[in-house]
Amino acid sequence: MLITELLHSHLLSSVVAVTGTIVLFQFVAVLQRKLNAIWLQPMLMSILVLMALLLWQDINFDRYFSNSWLLNALLEPAVVALGFPLYQHLETITKQWKNIVLTLLIGALIAIISSFIITMLIIGDYTIAVALSLKSITTPIAIAIAGQLDGNTAITAFTIILAGFFGALVGPRWLTYIKVKSPKAQGLAIGAASHAIGTATVSNISYEHAAYSSLALIVSAVITAITSPFIITFLASLW
Amino acid sequence: MKTFNKKVFNVTYSVFAICSCLAFGKLCSYFAPLLPSSLYGLITFTLTLHFRLFDADKIKSTVVWCIKHMAVCFVPAGVGIVNHLELVRQFGLAIVSITFVTTFILLTLVGLIYQRYAVSEE
């Protein structure tokens, strides 16, 4: 297979993996603009095409992932860059910090409790219930807490990606539909429910979305890290 | 040529600002592992701009470009779903459905509460 042979050379395979991913992403983005098709979401479509390609060509995911190291390395600086919209809205945010923290606290508690109870009722497996309770926060924290609480870390990683895409794809339209039109409320909701993936997507809508979503990403992660071990242990003792 | 040099300087300046904040974030994460280094870096970047340790005007254009294109960085991690296909087969649609429903609840709740009580207050 041509693609498999190309991947044998490490440097070449890195160039192919990174360039291929960027070209594919930009191609879908241009196509989405030209066709004005919402469902052609560049991130989701690129992932689906690459997944199909890996399965079709029998390429190991770890190989693709290590070859796309440049994009992975840029992930952390990209998240740091979100500090700029946050800085631009810092004054307004400082004035509303009580409302913001209270809203996100309620959101985090409901997310943990509802996910745990629904999973225990439907699947009845503690390790999966822990994994699903932590899916709304950023990956490194969620994986660490899932490990501490004997949750299934593979399912945690998987559901974090799912929650991210769900909020990123449906979030803004759904919120507009239920008359939540304020960029602040939309940003907070998407940051709280869909962490960095959602934040990356709504950052293209407006700077206000980006600022509030980044803030929700941080505050929700802190609240969940502090409260989830107590809540999950308490809920598990009831079962 | 002058404009080009200015652009190169601004890009270098922005990369330095972001990388130094990330480096500080890594240090914070090492000593206080409550948050990942990127989130500590995000907070540091916001504060350095607020206290004018870095010039926001020089950084703006580079950061706008970064934010516009950052979604592509999440693609390799997203392809990772391919590693969990067995899990999806094993537990069927239950996990996917619960994830969708609870994310939907959280989105709706946070959006409605903030819009009703905070945005209307302004």
Structure description:
The complex is a heterodimer of chains A (239) and B (122). Chain A has helices at residues 2-8, 10-35, 42-56, 61-67, 69-81, 83-88, 90-95, 97-122, 126-133, 139-148, 153-177, 183-202, 207-238. Chain A is mainly alpha-helical and 239 residues long. Chain A folds into two domains: 2-77, no CATH class; 83-238, no CATH class. The longest helix of chain A is centred in the C-terminal third of the chain and has 32 residues, at 207-238. Chain A is globular. Chain B is mainly alpha-helical. Chain B folds into two domains: 1-69, no CATH class; 79-122. Chain B is built from six helices and no strands. Chain B is extended and about 60 Å long. The model of chain B has no long low-confidence stretch (mean pLDDT 87).
Characteristic key phrases:
heterodimer; A: 239 residues; mainly alpha; 13 helices; 84% helix; globular; B: 122 residues; 2 domains; 6 helices
Number of strands of chain A: 0
Helix content of chain B: over 70%
Instruction: Based on Cα principal axes, name the global outline of chain A.
Output: globular
- What class do helices, strands and sheet pairing of chain B give? mainly alpha
Terminal Cα span of chain A:
53 Å
* Sequence stretches where pLDDT stays below 50 over 5 or more residues of chain A: none
Number of individual domains of chain A: 2
**How would you classify the helix and strand content of chain A by structural class?**
mainly alpha
What is the overall shape of chain B?
Answer: extended
Cα end-to-end separation of chain B: 47 Å
Low-confidence stretches of chain B: none
Rg result of chain A? 19 Å
- Chain-averaged pLDDT of chain A: 86
Number of helices of chain B: 6
pLDDT averaged over residues of chain B: 87
Oligomer: heterodimer
